[in-house]
Amino acid sequence: MLLWLADYLSQYYHGFFIVNYLTLRAIFGVLTALGISLWLGPYMIRSLSYHQIGQSVRNDGPQSHLSKAGTPTMGGGLILVSILISTLLWGNLTNKYIWLVLIVTGIFGAVGWVDDYRKVVEKNSRGLPARWKYFWQSLAGLGAALFLYCTAQAAAETTLIVPFFKSVSLQLGPFFILLGYLTIVGTSNAVNLTDGLDGLAIMPTVLVSAALGVFAYVSGHANFAQYLLMPAIPGSGELVIICGAIAGAGLGFLWFNTYPAQVFMGDVGALALGAALGLIAVIVRQEIVLIIMGGVFVMETVSVILQVGSFKLTGRRIFKMAPLHHHFELKGWPEPRVIVRFWIITLVLVLLGLATLKIR
């Protein structure tokens, strides 16, 4: 929106051309989303508290969590509003990737909102039935992957890139749709599983989104992509705006979500943010790098799969409790220790993912 305005005003003053610089718009996108989150956060928390939209806590979980009962939840709406406003202000609204990510993020957010609403407001412990939740997730994920496949203009846009290897890639053809679907839906649910402690999910989301912004910038810049042996995806550079908005909105939310949390994001935030990360990774052809950088999300998900599988097959549990962060809590780790150590792991993994830009 501001890009259009700047283009118009540049007829009268050439200084407005500066808004065309992607890096500058990305920086202002971060600051705008951060500012909106910090500004609206207190009002949102008061509103959620007034309407008694509070978190319910499992009795069989860590005893330290019982004190969190009643803490406002569904705060992920604040993140989504901040991302939306910042992106509309600073993004190029003629870019198809911008709209695709916003639409998919919105659909997953809506699914999470319905689930949260039924659990918290209607006091329905089941929330949105799993079959309907996965139906809508699958519909959005498949739709996004199919759209990308049908609108791809170059082979690089549907090629699987293997990190750390200069010339190892695989042309996926129609299998691109399956990989895209699994990445989007899988990442969405992985972030949701990780969102169990104060600030545990949002900081890794911020770090991964910032790193994906680097990949988006490189893939959208033909010269940089060629130099770093990355796939050149025309128009993908504009995703830097959304990645910056996610990082800024996430940091603003963390201000209120840090231990002890004043608000939780709920499924409305976790499902939407995970879908956004997955979709961006698919667009810039970095699904494998996403697995590396989002290693915390991966190990949380794997811990649940192993726990359920082991109990069904042998009647025994591998972990004291799944997801994995609860296992460490029940082993005696204080909640802040679990959170910060998972953040440190994510930072290391993100740096490793960024290293793939050059190590080939």
Structure description:
The chain is mainly α. It contains 14 helices and 2 strands. It has a two-stranded antiparallel sheet. Strand 1 and strand 2 form a beta hairpin. Helix 3 packs across helix 10 and helix 11 crosses helix 12. It is globular and about 60 Å long.
List the helices and strands and how they pair.
Layout: H1 2-9, H2 22-50, H3 76-90, H4 96-120, H5 130-151, E1 159-161, E2 169-171, H6 175-194, H7 202-219, H8 222-227, H9 239-257, H10 266-283, H11 287-293, H12 295-314, H13 324-330, H14 335-355
Antiparallel strand pairs: 1-2
Helix pairs in contact: 2-3, 2-9, 3-4, 3-9, 3-10, 4-5, 4-10, 5-6, 5-10, 6-10, 6-12, 7-9, 7-10, 7-14, 11-12, 11-14
Label this structure with key terms.
65% helix, 360 residues, 2% strand, 14 helices, two-stranded antiparallel ribbon, globular, mainly alpha
The gist of it:
It contains 14 helices and 2 strands.
Q: Termini, distance in Å?
A: 38 Å
**In DSSP terms, counting alpha (H) and pi (I) runs of 4 or more, how many helices?**
14
Q: What would the average pLDDT be, to the nearest integer? A: 91
Overall 3D form: globular
Radius of gyration: 20 Å
Please state the structural category: mainly alpha
The major sheet is characterized as: 2 strands, antiparallel
Order of helices and strands: HHHHHEEHHHHHHHHH
Strand fraction equals under 5%
Query: Total number of β-strand segments?
Result: 2
For the biggest β-sheet, the strand order reads 1-2
Q: Can you give the helix content as a percent range?
A: 55-70%
Report the uncertain regions.
none
